[in-house]
Write a structure and sequence with these properties.
It holds the Pfam family Ribonuc_L-PSP. There is one protein chain. By secondary structure, this protein is of the alpha+beta class. The protein has a single domain, classed as 60s Ribosomal Protein L30, Chain: A. 26% of the residues lie in helices and 30% in strands. Strand 3 and strand 4 form a beta hairpin.
Length: 147
């Protein structure tokens, strides 16, 4: 992470009646992390004119918040594999390139965790997210060594 010039933000606190991370049967389920930074929420909706830098920044914010949540609950050293990532993209009607938005998040996860970051994924277009966030990520991670 440091070689990428990145550091984890504080572990996100839940903003409602839920846990940031729940661990069960060797899997850590990270609640949805919206594209929130120390400066506020990177907002959508996204369309074909949204700058690539904005998309990358939103993806980075979500990924770093999800990793911070994992660090706070189990520690990143305990993660054997990122199993699944589901991304919700706040997009204008007619936008169809949701997968490209998630590529920025997937690439960053792999850049940080190496092969332990390789994961299955879904990209879902939505008509709104909390705080008008551009992106929200849910992450499922295997805790412990892989068989």
């Amino acid at each position: 992470m440091l070689t990428l010039g990145l550091s984890l933000p504080p572990s996100p606190a839940p903003r409602g009646a839920y846990r940031s991370v729940t661990v069960m049967n060797g899997l850590a389920y990270v609640s949805g992390q919206v594209s929130r930074t120390a400066d506020g929420i990177i907002t959508g909706p996204v369309d074909s004119r949204t700058p690539a830098r904005t998309i990358r920044n939103a993806a980075e914010a979500c990924v770093m918040r999800a990793l911070a949540a994992l660090e706070g609950e189990v520690g990143l050293d305990a993660i054997g594999q990122i199993v699944f990532v589901r991304g919700f993209v706040f997009a204008r009607a007619g936008f169809a390139d949701h997968s490209r938005i998630l590529d920025a998040a997937s690439e960053l996860i792999v850049a940080i965790l190496g092969s332990a970051g390789e994961h299955a994924r879904s990209a879902v277009g939505v008509s709104g997210l909390p705080g008008d966030g551009l992106l929200e990520l849910e992450v499922v991670a295997a805790v412990g060594t892989l068989n």
